[in-house]
Design a protein that fits this description.
With about 250 residues, the protein is of the alpha+beta class. Helix content is about 25%, strand content about 30%. The radius of gyration is 18 Å and the shape is globular. The model has no long low-confidence stretch (mean pLDDT about 95).
């Protein structure tokens, strides 16, 4: 069995025509428990953590099938609240139904919200959005890189799962890279390196490219320049032109 790491995904040869993809994320210290550093509703925490693993799969062309949560909290009541958040984010997907499974901690009292989340999906090999960017393509950042309380306070600037689904369905988008804790610049460097290209940055970039992207609040996309205006009409979130590849 051929297993390889591509960006943030583990990719497995499922059969002659399809890949299985596995994405993982973790979240700790955000919730309403005694020692949580950022206070937020558990439903919101789970929503965004679930969105991360779904977005990572969809951004590479995978259809999500299973979402598994390992919750280091009790079922009553934090676990149930977190599950509400997972179910909410899954309910927003219009093109696929994802099965939710998981576990909670019932033996030890916990004083801080913590979880690990894994998502499994499947992708036709010819649909994989990887190593597809070429010279003269353009790069755009959709949404803004936000983390912590800024995520809670700026929902109009954060990419939601339905935004990712709209982008995932666009065949003309060559690659999508959700921005995580390493920041936009690190994702962009990886993109250029594995495609063997460089980028001429825009002179009007107003965002901090090294700022943490938090729970996939933004996403880099690459397209042929002729599709830029279509992208602007597709998603009602902030869009920054990053540059042109050469």
């Amino acid at each position: 069995m051929n297993i390889k790491q591509i960006r943030d995904l583990t990719v497995i040869d499922f059969d002659e025509n399809r890949y299985l993809g596995i994405s993982c994320d973790s979240c700790g210290g955000i919730g309403l428990k005694e020692h949580d550093f950022v206070k937020a509703e558990p439903q919101l925490v789970a929503y965004h953590t679930g969105k991360v693993v779904l977005a990572e799969l969809m951004s590479m062309g995978f259809t999500p099938m299973i979402l598994a949560d390992g919750l280091a909290v009790e079922m009553n009541d934090t676990g149930k609240q977190l599950m509400e958040g997972f179910n909410e984010v899954l309910s927003k997907l219009k093109t696929t139904k994802v099965h939710l499974t998981g576990s909670t901690e019932e033996n030890i009292k916990t004083v801080q919200t913590s979880m690990g989340v894994t998502c499994i999906g499947i992708c036709d090999k010819d649909k994989l959005k990887y190593k597809k960017t070429v010279k003269n393509d353009v790069c755009m950042l959709i949404g803004l890189p936000l983390v912590g309380n800024d995520v809670v306070n700026n929902p109009d600037k954060v990419l939601d799962i339905n935004d990712f689904e709209k982008l995932y369905l666009c065949d003309y988008i060559k690659e999508m890279l959700p921005v995580g804790s390493r920041g936009t610049a690190a994702e962009l460097d990886d993109l250029c390196e594995y495609n063997g290209i460089k980028i001429k940055p825009s002179e009007n970039i107003s965002i901090d490219l090294k700022h943490s992207g938090g729970p996939s609040c933004s996403c880099l996309i690459t397209v042929d320049e002729k599709y830029v205006d279509i992208i602007k009409d597709l998603v009602d979130k902030p869009i920054n032109f990053i540059g042109t590849f050469y």
